[in-house]
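can u do me a favor
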């Protein structure tokens, strides 16, 4: 592993992004061929296992347990360019870095993730500094969530979920369930009104799991208000303004606790590149074949994870299934042989409903329920909670990121 602030190197394979997708692919490539020249572009010196941030927001997991130095997870033999992608030119097979350097490649893997677009909600970033607002979509926000949850003494608690795809799409409701259960345990249920102001139409698109979540919401008396898309927050007045997706009317809710899920968009360098889907619900994300993960127009480009325009949930579980397919097909491309591996859209969402309770939603393209354990996964289960809390983090750090799982 070698770091460079600026470079004009040519790589056999260049990976953009050092999140779960980028590191996993780089590790698998090197395991498959230790002589393969692989470059990695990633600006951050730390790497986070974001799947635990909902439990940080509930005070179950300490923030430090979710972060490790990037230098310790970049696969051996991969050249790390500690820089940010400024532009991608697939015609010239060239990537420009913010430092001014250029990288060229034979094959490119786009794993740039997704961007938290706080600027699309007026006042959101200012509101995050107030003591009754949090967001488990950043580590600092998760810490604030737990502090605000503890300080809450009753009133109206509002949880938002925007239009469009978000990473870990179940997180907005996971933290809602965790907060509700925590306040119930403190005897605050009688003077607390929990509102889920979500822009969608259902709790989850998988019918078998949605039925369970609807039952959870009904039993707890959570007030679900669908088709509500957050537009602005007034932290002084403690007022959130939503746009009703169907009527276009503004709806205002006052709050004593607010959890924000930011709108999310493709990274600017990808959204403005020729690699991006030009329009529609996946506009700005990498336009790849849904099965092979190869770009539809540029055969030497592949993409996976949050950056890919795939009609499935953006989760680490999806990356775990996408990475071996992408690596096998990329190696076939380099060898000049047919691409034979296929991704079926698998994703997974471990839906925490309380500490010690979890509904594990596994599904493929078309929101087809695809359980992988010989138990009833539509029920709230303690064993699935143990999987989420203890097994999956180890699988992530010691399996996925090392190209072993």
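np, heres the sequence
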């Amino acid at each position: 592993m070698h770091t460079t602030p600026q470079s004009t190197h040519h790589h056999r394979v260049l990976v953009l992004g050092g999140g779960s997708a980028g590191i996993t692919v780089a590790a698998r490539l090197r395991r498959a061929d230790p002589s393969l020249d692989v470059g990695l572009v990633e600006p951050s010196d730390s790497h986070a296992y974001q799947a635990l941030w909902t439990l940080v927001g509930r005070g179950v997991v300490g923030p430090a347990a979710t972060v490790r130095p990037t230098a310790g997870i970049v696969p051996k033999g991969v050249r790390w360019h500690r820089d940010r992608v400024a532009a991608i030119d697939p015609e010239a097979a060239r990537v420009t870095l913010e430092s001014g350097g250029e990288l060229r490649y034979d094959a490119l893997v786009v794993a740039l993730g997704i961007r938290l677009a706080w600027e699309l909600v007026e006042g959101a970033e200012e509101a995050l500094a107030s003591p009754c607002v949090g967001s488990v979509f950043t580590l600092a926000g998760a810490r604030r969530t737990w502090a605000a949850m503890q300080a809450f003494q009753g009133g109206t608690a509002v949880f938002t979920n925007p239009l469009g795809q978000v990473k870990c799409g179940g997180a907005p409701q996971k933290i809602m369930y965790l907060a509700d259960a925590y306040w119930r345990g403190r005897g605050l249920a009688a003077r607390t009104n929990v509102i889920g102001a979500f822009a969608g139409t259902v709790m989850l698109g998988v019918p078998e799991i949605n039925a369970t979540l609807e039952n959870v919401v009904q039993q707890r008396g959570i007030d679900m208000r669908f088709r509500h898309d957050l537009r602005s927050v007034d932290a002084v007045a403690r007022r959130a303004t939503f746009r009703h997706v169907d009527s276009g009317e503004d709806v205002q809710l006052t709050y004593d606790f607010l959890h924000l899920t930011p709108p999310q968009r493709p990274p600017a360098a990808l959204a403005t590149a020729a690699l991006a889907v030009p329009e529609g619900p996946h506009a700005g994300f990498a336009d790849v074949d849904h099965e092979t993960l190869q770009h539809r127009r540029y055969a030497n480009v592949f993409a996976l994870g949050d950056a890919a325009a795939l009609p499935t949930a953006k989760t680490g579980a999806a990356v775990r299934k996408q990475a071996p397919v992408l690596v096998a097909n990329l190696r076939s491309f380099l060898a000049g042989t047919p691409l034979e591996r296929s991704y079926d859209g698998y994703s997974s969402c471990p839906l925490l409903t309380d500490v010690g309770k979890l509904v594990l939603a596994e599904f493929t393209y078309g929101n087809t329920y695809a359980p992988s354990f010989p138990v009833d996964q539509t029920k709230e289960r303690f064993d699935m909670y143990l999987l989420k809390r203890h097994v999956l983090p180890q699988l992530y750090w010691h399996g996925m990121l090392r190209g072993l799982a």
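Residues 116-264 form a domain with the FAD/NAD(P)-binding domain fold (CATH 3.50.50.60). hope that helps!!
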